[in-house]
Amino acid sequence: PAGGKGEKLLMWFRADLRLHDHPALKYVEQHGSAVLPLFTFDPRQFGKTSFGFAKTGRYRAEFLIEAVDQLRKRLRDIGSDLIIREGKPEEVIVNLCKQNGIRKVVYHREVCFEEQEVEQKLQKALEKGRIEHKALWSNTLYDVEDLPFAVEKMPDVYSKFRDMVKDKGQIREPLPAPKKLPRTIDCESGRLPTLSDLGLGSEPPRKLKAERFTGGEIDAMGRLERYIAEAKRNSGTASSHLGADFSCKISPWLALGCVSPRRIHQELKKRNVVPEVRIARHFLPLEKDTKRSFFPEQISKSTTYFELVWRDFFRFITLKYGASRLRTGTTSAAGTRAQALTSSGIKEQMMSAAH
Question: Keywords in UniProt for this one (predicted)?
């Protein structure tokens, strides 16, 4: 606990760049006597794929830099700090632990191949140095422990998954942001890298005609507030497909964990907002049995909750079948099934909008 007895901890931030609804920070708050909050820019994320494409473009990198900078400011506002490094996490973290006498690392689990690969390398390095690690779950609407089934037995079809979690699942209340953390371990805080430092050129990204999004928790909540206000103002009216507010556009912030799915759900629910998404007719199939279109010219459907459930579905299905199978394209039955689910997901999503 802050200021009390506990462990010296390293808090490794990943795709969870926020203070609110943060289980790992809650653990630090409850169990730490001192903490070293860390974000490391992994050079492997700014290289090329095996096909020669950039893993991280300049706009995404700029958004990430902004989100990390905002997280540092948020932590400093509550008397803490964010240590920033460039390097492989499995090397940077172990070195910082050894230099500062830290015996446990706390972080959130991820489900995709490269992230899990980094976790495995880190765990091996920590075990070699006799350093403990605590991996917690976050970044889904439904917590993995609250699903009405074991992950390995989850339905392979989205509609079944959706119906089961809707009827029997439990959505936890989002955790409040900490007002204070254990003292920050004295360490050089480090400099926020530039695009040039990350190998993405020295020129700033060109200005876009569309609305520019800024990374960070504060901007994520501002975007959500704006969407809620627009949804309430236009309730019951046809929404445009163009402009900044025809949809929530919260995905960039969700991807970096600047806002949690549970916080989005909570805000929409307590404001009694039922946002609408319009689905154009030409995207939608015909109903085979009746030989008529399921759909009029446009159909409005309350989808924010269900889009968050879709997001959960793909994270849990990746966890079920194993990220390595999805990445390598294995020909095993499980891998083939998982790949088929991914390719057919959009079609089923369109169909489910009719019901």
Answer: FAD, Flavoprotein
41 is in an annotated binding site: no
118 is in an annotated binding site: no
Residue 236, domain member (yes or no): no
Which CATH number do you get for residue 157? 1.25.40
Please tell me whether 33 is known to bind a ligand.
Answer: no
pLDDT tens for each residue of 172-210: 999 999 999 999 999 999 999 999 999 998 776 666 656
Q: What residue spans of the chain are helical by DSSP H?
A: 23-31, 58-77, 89-100, 113-128, 158-168, 217-233, 251-255, 261-270, 304-321, 323-328, 333-352
Determine the Cα–Cα distance for residues 256 and 14; give it in Å rounded to an integer.
Answer: 8
Specify the 3-state DSSP secondary structure of 48: strand
| Last-in-domain residue among 138, 165, 189 | 138
DSSP string, 292-348: EES--SEEEEE-HHHHHHHHHHHHHHHHHH-HHHHHHT--SHHHHHHHHHHHHHHHH
Of 104, 67, 97, the closest CA to residue 82 belongs to: 67
25 annotated binding-site participant: no
Sign of the CA dihedral 265, 266, 268, 274? positive
The DSSP call for residue 184 is E
User: pTM of the full predicted structure?
Assistant: 0.82
Establish whether 311 is an annotated binding residue: yes
Residue 247 annotated as lining a ligand binding site = yes
For residue 146, what are the domain limits? 139-174+260-355
pLDDT, tens digit (0-9, with 9 covering 90-100), for 11-47: 999 999 999 999 999 999 999 999 999 999 999 999 8
Cα Rg of the chain (Å, integer): 22
The residue among 122, 138, 154 that closes a domain is 138
Q: Is 309 annotated as a binding residue?
A: yes
Does the annotation list 163 as a binding residue? no
Is residue 251 annotated as involved in ligand binding? yes
